[in-house]
Design brief:
Elements lengths: L3 H11 L38 H13 L3 E4 L2 H19 L5 E5 L4 H10 L2 E5 L12 H11 L3 E5 L10 H10 L3 E5 L22 E4 L1 H4 L7 E5 L1 H7 L3 H6 L8 H16 L1 H22 L11 E4 L7 H9 L7 E2 L3 E4 L7 H11 L24 H5 L3 E5 L30 H9 L4 E5 L2
Parallel strand pairs: 2-3, 2-4, 4-5, 5-6
Antiparallel strand pairs: 1-7, 6-7, 8-10, 9-10, 11-12
Helix pairs in contact: 1-10, 2-10, 3-4, 5-6, 11-13
Keywords: Aminotransferase, Pyridoxal phosphate, Transferase
Protein name: Aminotransferase class V-fold PLP-dependent enzyme
InterPro entries: Orn/Lys/Arg_deCO2ase_major_dom (IPR000310), Orn_Lys_Arg_decarboxylase-I (IPR052357), Prn/Lys/Arg_de-COase_C_sf (IPR036633), PyrdxlP-dep_Trfase (IPR015424), PyrdxlP-dep_Trfase_major (IPR015421)
Length: 442
């Protein structure tokens, strides 16, 4: 598979051109890779008006993912904002006011999108905790019938690696003529399993992937995917909507990494992924035999519920750091490790040796406090743009949350802007070490 962006950047660099254009390092900066860092000069195409090498590269990605695919150099955040714009515009085109039924564990970028686009949200709480939001067909159908949303928005996989039955949930959405958008930020690699578990393959109308999370792509590289049917309606508007939220100077280094990844995904990645999954499965089995509790879920996450082993996730993470091993995420209850095919066998062996060198202790019995459903006082946009003050969490009871800075790891909010802060939300914030919160100024 050709890599047109990479080829152009290398060709330009090899000419030793006189760079009378941005950026200011002129290809000769101090880091060593500036030679391929360009702006939208002649021949380099434009990300949001792609007609040349970027269009060709996106078409290559589309063929790999089996659906219309668009690049983002601003991570899944830009893709989520664009997905929400499409959901809003689709509702308005049908004469409806946008109202999105969303899993409560939505990332805070979804909350920002709600504030910027001013759409209503109805929350799905599921039957899990606030890091997960397990939704089944019956619960989703009941919620759709009761709240009459114009779209459904789910996070799958979630941060702990849980995978829900997207195919069945998509069928419920189609039954009620409701669009389904899936934040698949952690699951770009799911397309390359046999069979594919990618949301669009399972019936979702829109999906975003953070390519950099699980594929060999630089940080910030992401994909926005549309189903063929939805793309037929909005293909002339997608890039226009992306421009609403994006920089006018997208990174060519990130685009080049997305472009270069296409060749890898087309050739060696499936085999490398399959071999890595086998190694990770073997490591999980070893850890279980040693006494660890491993949560089931997606194959490329190792999520340990640490208290059964006698430690908090923070404590296990600190012990791993003493071995120069750094986890993706950890809190009082869990530690999340994210291997990829680019971790070596030695990497996994070092991880096994370190974890199996930790002495097991008595079980820690304390559990996260239960988060009750919060009372809504105003919508997200009103709350975020209202005058606000910062209070100690212990003094915030009854106040209206005004900010997403109360970021319960991993960027999932125990209380949403516009909601009244309750005793249970205060307990949750204290549990996660959140000491202050911004509230609407009275």
């Amino acid at each position: 598979m050709k890599t047109p962006i990479v080829s152009f950047l290398k060709s330009y660099q090899e000419k030793s051109p006189v760079r009378m254009h941005m950026p200011g390092h002129k290809g000769a900066g101090i880091l060593g890779f500036e030679g391929m860092d360009l702006t939208e000069i002649y021949g380099a195409d434009e990300l949001f008006a792609a007609e040349g090498i970027i269009k060709e590269s996106e078409q290559n990605a589309s063929s790999l993912f089996g659906c219309p695919t668009y690049y983002s150099t601003q991570g899944s955040t830009l893709c989520i904002q664009t997905m929400c714009t499409i959901l809003c515009q689709d509702a308005k085109s049908k004469g409806k006011k946008p109202k999105i039924l969303a899993g409560r564990n939505a990332h805070r970028s979804f909350i920002h999108a709600a504030a910027l686009l001013d759409f209503d949200i109805e929350w799905l709480y599921g039957n899990s905790d606030y890091l997960s939001c397990k939704i089944n067909e019956e619960d989703l159908e009941k919620a759709i019938i009761e709240s009459l949303p114009t779209a459904v928005y789910l996070t799958n996989p979630d941060y702990l690696g849980n995978l829900w039955d997207i195919q069945s949930l998509a069928s419920v959405c189609k039954k009620h003529n409701v669009l389904l958008a899936v934040d698949n930020a952690h699951g770009a690699y799911l397309r390359f399993l046999e069979p594919s578990l990618h949301p669009v393959d399972l019936g979702a109308d829109l999906s975003c992937d953070s390519a950099h999370k699980t594929l060999p792509v630089l940080t910030g590289g992401a994909y926005l995917h549309l189903s063929d049917s939805l793309n037929q309606v909005w293909k002339n508007d997608v890039k226009h909507f992306m421009e609403y939220f994006s920089s006018t100077s997208p990174s060519y280094l990130i685009m080049a990494s997305l472009d270069a990844a296409n060749e890898v995904l087309d050739t060696t990645f499936k085999k490398s992924l399959s071999e890595c999954i086998q190694r990770v499965d073997g490591l999980k089995n070893t850890l279980v035999q040693y006494g660890y509790t491993i949560l089931s879920g997606e194959p490329m996450k190792i999520t340990i519920s640490t208290k059964e082993f006698g430690y908090t996730g923070n404590e296990i993470a600190n012990l791993l750091m003493e071995c120069d091993i750094y986890a993706e995420f950890y809190d009082s209850d869990y530690i999340v490790l994210m291997p990829s095919p680019y971790n070596t066998k030695d990497d996994l062996k070092r991880l096994e040796t370190c974890l199996c060198g930790i002495e097991r202790k008595p079980i820690l019995a304390n559990k996260p406090p239960k988060l009750e459903q919060s009372k809504k006082a105003m919508n997200v946009r009103q709350a975020l743009f209202s005058p606000s003050i910062t209070l100690d969490v212990s003094k915030s009871l009854g106040q209206v949350c005004s900010s997403v800075t109360v970021s319960c790891p991993p960027a999932i909010l125990p209380v949403i802007p516009g909601e009244v802060i309750s005793e249970s939300s205060i307990e949750v914030m204290k549990y996660y070490g959140i000491e202050t919160v911004r509230v609407v100024k009275e």
